[in-house]
């Protein structure tokens, strides 16, 4: 279904995110017929170039980063015709009048702040001062949304001077992933799981977002953030919210975000002994983290694992073990809900210990697996064995279903449609920082180094001990 006509300005239009994600995503929506020929995209940045040069820039970006072969090359020319460029100074006067002149009356207006948070306030200010944005305009802001509670509050305040919360779309691209949205469908579209989804039946929950890549060329940014700020405060906490929240009354922005916020606010402070931070070492040809960033004595973590506890009626007593890291054994993100043992075994002690585990594979090989216990076939008496009921989306729904739209495709179209459900509200982001800040502060106070782990491993051994001491263990990263 095509969306209404829109004018989308991309501040930071020549940046990495525009090149890798935003422009290819728009092109795919154009190919799918969702972005109409009446939409306009305006790149804006400091770099001096004209619209023709920007179209070439976009052509190269899309050729390099769009892997959807169904998008015919001939569509590309049509898409590029809808692009233009304005040289603009976010902190000065250059370009703003031209931008005002470029915006049409009528279409939906969206301004994508694909720039560092240091410029959010300046952009908001000028969009207002030059009377470019109005009460119906939307702004899209990227992470990192600050680096702690105080800076996030300052950003929220700066934006709120000129924009209402209903106009602000804070991106967490994990919420745009098909499999992440599917968490809500699994929980609230079935009767099977929800009655068991609480501390009475769930022993613990594991959330893993493992990456096999290292920090690559992003050392400059990453070394100032680390895994806690880069992944935990946003992506992993969002997963935690979707897994732990109460059923919202409706799938709408206010209801969903209210429930997520309640989860974050119910999180207990994390004990120092329940957090492990690690940093990868080089192996063979692969450089270690320290060799990929400027500061060779850096204490920044590329891995973090922790035990979170949610202090509410549903979850008291059920820990959530959460880990994420770079240069791990595999790229594998999953959530495992480990149910408690059956209250009594009629088969006696010899039958061994069996439990149901529901695993939701977020990426790759997206799907759901439910471990169930059955009788081992054969005449040997009642021996029990655990087998998986395994569903991959590609098998169940056909190979095309595995060709998910990229998170950015979904999210940019949601901005145009005016749907904030999959975006973070200001209070949510602040609450997440309020939980994460004391953990980071404690690291800084003790001035200890992160624990080194080998590239291609499952992270530091201490992360294993985090669960062993509770008599549990992580699922293998594979
Ligand atoms: C980004 C982080 O938000 O998410 C990166 O800044 C990380 O460090 C990336 O690599 C992971 O996203 P995905 O979609 O590849 O799982």
TrEMBL record:
Catalytic-site annotation from UniProt: 235 (proton acceptor)
Domain Glucose-6-phosphate dehydrogenase NAD-binding, residue spans: 9-182
Record's protein name: Glucose-6-phosphate 1-dehydrogenase
Matches recorded under InterPro entries: G6P_DH, G6P_DH_AS, G6P_DH_C, G6P_DH_NAD-bd, NAD(P)-bd_dom_sf
Family according to the record: Belongs to the glucose-6-phosphate dehydrogenase family.
List of residues binding substrate: 173, 177, 211, 230, 326
Reaction(s) this enzyme catalyzes, per UniProt: D-glucose 6-phosphate + NADP(+) = 6-phospho-D-glucono-1,5-lactone + NADPH + H(+)
Gene3D superfamilies in alphabetical order: Dihydrodipicolinate Reductase, domain 2 (3.30.360.10), NAD(P)-binding Rossmann-like Domain (3.40.50.720)
Pfam families the UniProt entry points to: G6PD_C, G6PD_N
Keywords: Carbohydrate metabolism, Glucose metabolism, NADP, Oxidoreductase
NCBIfam families: zwf
């Amino acid at each position: 279904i095509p969306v209404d006509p829109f004018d989308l300005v991309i501040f930071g239009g020549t940046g990495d995110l525009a090149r890798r994600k935003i422009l290819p995503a728009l092109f795919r929506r154009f190919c799918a017929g969702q972005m109409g020929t009446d939409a306009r995209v305006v790149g804006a940045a400091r770099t001096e170039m004209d619209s023709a040069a920007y179209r070439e820039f976009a052509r190269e970006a899309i050729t390099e980063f769009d892997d959807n072969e169904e998008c015919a090359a001939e569509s590309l020319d049509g898409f590029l015709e809808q692009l233009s460029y304005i040289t603009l100074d976010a902190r000065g006067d250059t370009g703003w009048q031209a931008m005002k002149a470029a915006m049409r009356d009528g279409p939906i207006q969206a301004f994508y702040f694909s720039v560092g948070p240091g410029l959010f306030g300046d952009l908001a200010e000028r969009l207002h001062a030059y009377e470019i944005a109005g009460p119906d305009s939307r702004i899209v802001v990227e992470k990192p949304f600050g680096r702690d509670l105080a800076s996030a509050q300052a950003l929220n305040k700066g934006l709120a001077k000129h924009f209402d919360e209903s106009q602000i779309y804070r991106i967490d691209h994990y919420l745009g992933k098909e499999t992440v949205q599917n968490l809500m469908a699994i929980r609230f579209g079935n009767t099977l799981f929800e009655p068991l989804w609480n501390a009475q039946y769930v022993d613990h929950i594991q959330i893993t977002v493992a990456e096999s890549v290292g920090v690559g060329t992003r050392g400059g940014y990453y070394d100032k953030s680390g895994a806690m700020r880069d992944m935990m405060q946003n992506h992993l906490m969002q997963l935690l919210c979707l897994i732990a929240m109460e059923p919202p009354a409706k799938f709408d922005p206010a209801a969903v975000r209210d429930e997520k916020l309640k989860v974050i606010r119910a999180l207990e402070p994390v004990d120092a002994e329940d957090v492990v931070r690690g940093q990868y070492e080089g192996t063979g040809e692969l450089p270690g983290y320290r060799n990929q960033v400027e500061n060779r004595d850096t204490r920044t973590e590329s891995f973090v694992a922790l035990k979170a506890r949610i202090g509410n009626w549903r979850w008291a007593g059920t820990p959530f073990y959460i880990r994420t890291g770079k240069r791990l054994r595999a790229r594998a993100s999953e959530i495992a809900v480990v149910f408690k043992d059956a209250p009594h075994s009629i088969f006696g002690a010899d039958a061994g210990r069996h439990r149901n585990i529901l695993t939701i594979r977020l990426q790759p090989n997206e799907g759901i697996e439910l471990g169930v216990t059955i009788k081992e076939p054969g005449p040997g008496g009642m021996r029990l064995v655990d087998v998986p009921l395994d569903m991959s989306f590609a098998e169940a729904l056909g190979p095309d279903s595995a060709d998910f739209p990229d998170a950015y495709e979904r999210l940019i179209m949601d901005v145009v449609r005016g749907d904030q459900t999959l975006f973070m509200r200001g209070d949510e982001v602040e609450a997440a920082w309020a939980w994460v800040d004391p953990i980071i502060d404690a690291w800084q106070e003790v001035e200890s180094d992160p624990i080194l782990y080998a590239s291609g491993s499952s992270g530091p051994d201490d992360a294993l001990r985090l669960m062993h001491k509770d008599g549990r263990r992580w699922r293998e990263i594979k």
